[in-house]
Inverse folding.
């Protein structure tokens, strides 16, 4: 299982993406246990900012937001490399992932 889990203390929510090896869908979780599975979504990692865009129907199933911007300032190079590796594994065989150094 590949997992990315973040807590945004400023905006008071947790956010995770996960995918089991034998599944095609990505699970998106917002808050605590508010989750849904999707075929595709858009995730961009630019420096220390993670931006996620989801479609309107998924937003309605979660907490109503279509975008999430998670500031990763303070994450050291090892944590960032682990994050990039998890994102690559989650999006293996899928479109929607963009990573800029």
């Amino acid at each position: 299982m590949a997992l990315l889990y973040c807590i945004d203390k400023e905006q008071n929510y947790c956010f995770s993406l996960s995918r089991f090896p034998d599944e095609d869908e990505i699970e998106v979780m917002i808050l605590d246990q508010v989750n849904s599975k999707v075929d595709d979504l858009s995730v961009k990692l630019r420096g220390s900012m993670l931006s996620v865009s989801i479609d309107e129907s998924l937003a309605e199933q979660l907490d109503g937001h279509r975008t999430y911007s998670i500031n990763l300032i303070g994450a050291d190079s090892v944590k960032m490399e682990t994050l990039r590796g998890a994102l690559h594994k989650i999006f293996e065989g899928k479109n929607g992932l963009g990573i800029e150094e």
Q: What stands out?
A: The chain has a mean pLDDT of 90. The first helix runs from residue 56 to 61. Helices lie at 56-61, 77-90. The CA atoms of residues 8 and 59 lie 18 Å apart.
